[in-house]
Amino acid sequence: MPVSTRLILAIHNHQPVGNFDHVIRHACEKAYFPLLDLLEEFPEIAVVLHNSGSLIDWLMKHEPGYIERLAAFVDNGQIELLGGPYFEPILAAIPRRDRVGQTASYKKFLERRFDAPVRGAWIPERVWEQSFAADLIDAGVEYILLDDAHFRAAGISNDDLHGYYFTEDAGRKLCLFPGSERLRYLLPYADPHEIIEHCRQVAEKHPGAVLTFGDDGEKFGVWPGSWDHVYTNGWMRRFFTALREQSSWLKVTTMDETVRNVSPLGRTYLPDGSYREMMEWALPAERQVQYHNAMNGYRQHHDWPQLGSFVRAGFWRNFLVKYPETNEMYTRMLGVSQRLAEYEELYGDKEHVADLRAARADLYRAQCNCPYWHGAFGGLYLPHLRNAVYSHLIAADHKLDQIAGKSHPWVEVTIDDYNCDSRFEISLKSDKLKAFLAPAQGGQMYELDVTAVRHNLLSTLNRRFEPYHHKIRQCAGSAHVTEHGGGVDPNGGVSFKQAGLDQKLQYDQWARKSLVDHFLQPGLAVESFASGEGIVGDFAQGAYKAIVRRSDSHVEAVMTRDGHVGPHQATVRKIIAMNESCPGEIQIRYELSNLPLNLPLHFGVEFNFAGLAGSAPDRYLYDAAGRSIGTLDSTHSLQAGKSMGLVDEWLGIDVNLDTTMPAEFWIMPVQTVSQSEGGFELVHQSTSVVPHWEFFAPADGCWSVELRLSIDTSVAHARALHEENARRPVSMSLTV
């Protein structure tokens, strides 16, 4: 057999912006370094390697030795580097200017650092739309790798996938490599000789074939069970040895060498899509279940090998519909990107160029794809990844405020369709806080940015049905959890990181945001409310009418809704204000009118506070007397008082809620049950705080209360809290 069959091994290493250092170090020890170690023993094995920019930045700071070793492999030609958008955004989720900018800047960085041309690019999650071709060409990209499913959806048969194609935009060409799904499932799970046999069968049928594998590097050592299989038990060494033994006919090579020496198979235009699993995850949850059930039946049909190529599931952009929290990050990012582009036009002189560059770096980091979707792994469900996105968005926005000269205390109110729902939202801003209100969605506050600590206190996540919840319920009886916290169902191989997760499955009926208005059944208990019971009004999600008022030092939004309390009508008017003299506070006034007389009424206002770790001892709740009452994942029903608060010493933030009328406070955690690489787990998403009042309406049918939400981020205050806590761990006195 002639030396004409090529095998391309493309490895993609990525760690999200904001991931924990110990997680990245674990990946280095189990996957990134071991691969380089083995490549040193097999110098004839060439690899195409993509390290995302977020990972490279971390490695340069924490593991510079990896960078030096990588440079040596690049210099001797054993590793070809792929570029791509710097911080691994989904290209469909960022504006064109940022697609070109991220990709061009990463190409320039890699070429400067490694002194080698970077001609190809990795497409994050292989999410493709044909319009991306022009953007990639403009960024200097010559070829990319996508899944062979993209090509089959374009009508290309399996027999015509053993090479590469080109596409064009306005006459400019981009080469496209089809990554083999078959190889993706064989490596590293099949015996190396089975993989070689697959390559041999292709080679015999298609002389001169090019086979391309492309997948995550973490599956070779980091994924559960993979370290023992790939390295301890020697799978990778046996695979490389088998490739060496077959070198007389199977050439392990790079994409660059292939493009220089092999002609393309032809031209194609690929339909929008991604890899098969991603397109399934993008479906609404119930439709995803229906799709899986249907596919399980159809795959048994004798015509399925022919029909399967034409069956497609969802579309990536519908994650923005499936998860409103994704849309909130996405639209906030779009707003910062647009503002930055405008400021680059206005202030692109030497005085501001460094600040603009720093703002763009923050924007690019905030576009990292991982928390913008959810599939087999945590993604959106991981608070630290969402927090990282918001942290960089808030940082970029603050830099733009400073460029615009907003360095003194200021307040501002603006109106726009901030979340792209075709309805107007309101933004109240000061030099300390930025709040976003959605009158059409219960008049809720859906984002609250704290500038000093670059934190969105409303980066919350609702509990909602996911298709894998069926599996949790099915395995609940047979699964067990070990003393170390992990467990596996012996029948289905399902891992549980906590016991009793099936009992934690619960789904929210309204958005877990703040200023969520509830009329409740009189005498309702906190446990019933936490289960979603006892709501008798239609204000939590109903549309409010809104106006804004402004002066030089004071801004406010006034929202009003005529709705129902059971069979009775009522009116809720709420006024949310910021004042220049108190930029770290939000003043809130509720005015209830047209209330039914001679009936017991129960009214509550729900707040949620997110991004504060649930069980850590230095994140805790305190009552009206300043006493610590427990961690943020504890449940309480506090007797009537006028205030309570939450502290996160690690962030350096103290959130205090005061009321003019004594209220009982319900406090409860909002926790999701989600899937991650390590198995099913319970994740603390937010702490819900509900001041509520039971009363009879006065004779005029009117009732009112004022609340003050104050946020303290002073370093001295945080230090004082820490020292006081060390002296008196059970209770403390706070000065707010």
Write the SSE topology.
Blueprint: E1 5-13, H1 21-41, E2 47-51, H2 53-62, H3 64-75, E3 79-81, H4 96-114, E4 120-122, H5 132-138, E5 143-147, H6 148-153, E6 165-169, E7 172-179, H7 181-186, H8 192-205, E8 210-216, H9 226-232, H10 235-245, E9 250-253, H11 255-261, H12 276-281, H13 285-298, H14 304-307, H15 319-322, H16 324-346, H17 353-366, H18 383-403, E10 411-416, E11 425-430, E12 433-438, E13 444-450, E14 455-456, H19 469-475, E15 487-488, E16 495-496, E17 516-519, H20 526-530, E18 545-550, E19 554-565, E20 568-579, E21 582-593, E22 600-610, E23 619-622, E24 628-631, E25 636-648, E26 653-676, E27 679-696, E28 703-712, H21 715-727
Parallel strand pairs: 1-2, 1-8, 1-9, 2-3, 4-5, 5-7
Antiparallel strand pairs: 6-7, 10-11, 11-12, 12-13, 13-14, 15-16, 17-22, 18-19, 19-20, 20-21, 21-28, 22-27, 23-24, 23-25, 25-26, 26-27, 26-28
Helix pairs in contact: 2-3, 4-5, 16-17, 16-18, 17-18
